[in-house]
Amino acid sequence: MSKTIDAGVVLTRRNFLNTAGIAVLSAGAVSMLAGCDAIPAAHAKTGAQDVAILNVALGLEHEGIAAYQLGAESGLLQKPVLDVAVLFQSQHKQHRDVLIATIEKLGGRPVAAKPLAEYANALNAGALKNQTDVLVLAARLELGATSAYLGVIPSFKDGALARVSGRLAADEAMHWTVLNNALGRQLPQAALTFGA
Q1: Measured torsion, CA atoms of residues 37, 38, 44, 46, in degrees rounded to the nearest 10
Q2: Residue 158: how many other CB atoms lie within 10 Å
Q3: Three-class SS state of 185
C-alpha cells in the first residue's frame, strides 16, 4: 500500500499549474475528468495537447503517491497518523486512476511511475528523522498544491474546469488542515489562508 508525503521535486504541482497545467485543459478533458464518457468533437483537435498536460499531472500524482509510500515505510509514523497518510494516498491514487482513464479515452499512453528509489532520492527521504519531519513536509506540499489549484481558477473561461480545480483545492486544503492539526499547530488567525 502506498503512503507518501508529496514533495515537490523538479516540477512541483504549483509550478505545473502556474505554467502549463490545468488552465489549458479543454472542456472535453474536464468533462471526462468529471466522469462524462463522451468526447466532444471539438476536443479531438486538442486531444494530443490535453494528453501531454494530463500526463504531466499524472506524473505529479505518481510522485505524490510515492511520497506517501516513503513516509509510511519510514517507520516514523504512529498508527493513527499512518492511517491518515494511507487515506490521503488513496485519494491521490483515485486522482491517478481518473487521469489514466482520461488519457486512455483520448487515445494517449499514460506515463508510468518511476521506481520508488528515484522518488526517495528526489524527495530527500533520508533527511526525515521523525514523525514531525514527515508531517511538516506533507503539510508544506499540501499547502502548495492548494494554492496552485486555487491560483488557476480565475484563468478559466469554462466553469466546469474551475469547478474541477476547486474540488481538487478542497481536497488539498482538507489534507493540509488535518496535517496541521496532527502537528499541533494553531488554526490560521487570519482569513484567506489559501491561494495567496
Answers
A1: -60
A2: 14
A3: coil
Q: The CATH number of 13-182 is which of 2.130.10.10, 3.30.43.10, 2.10.109.10, 1.20.1260.10?
A: 1.20.1260.10
Q: pTM of the predicted model, to two decimals?
A: 0.70
Contact yes or no for 175/147 (Cβ under 8 A): no
With cell 499512453, the residue in question is 109
pLDDT at 43: 47
Closest CA to 51 of 16, 112, 103, 104: 103
Angle at 102 between CA 96 and CA 104, to 5 degrees: 105
- Domains of the chain, by residue range, sit at 13-182
Does the CA dihedral 172-177-180-182 come out positive or negative?
Answer: negative
pLDDT tens column, 32-91: 444 444 444 444 444 566 676 667 667 777 877 888 899 999 999 999 999 999 999 999
pLDDT single digits (tens) 128-180: 999 999 998 888 777 877 776 677 666 544 455 566 667 778 888 898 999 99
Residue 131 has a CB neighbour count (10 Å cut-off) of: 18
| 3-41 CB burial, b ≥16 within 10 A, e <16 | bbbbbbbeebbbebbbebbbbbbbbbbbbbbeeeeebee
Q: Grid cell 464518457 — which residue?
A: 37
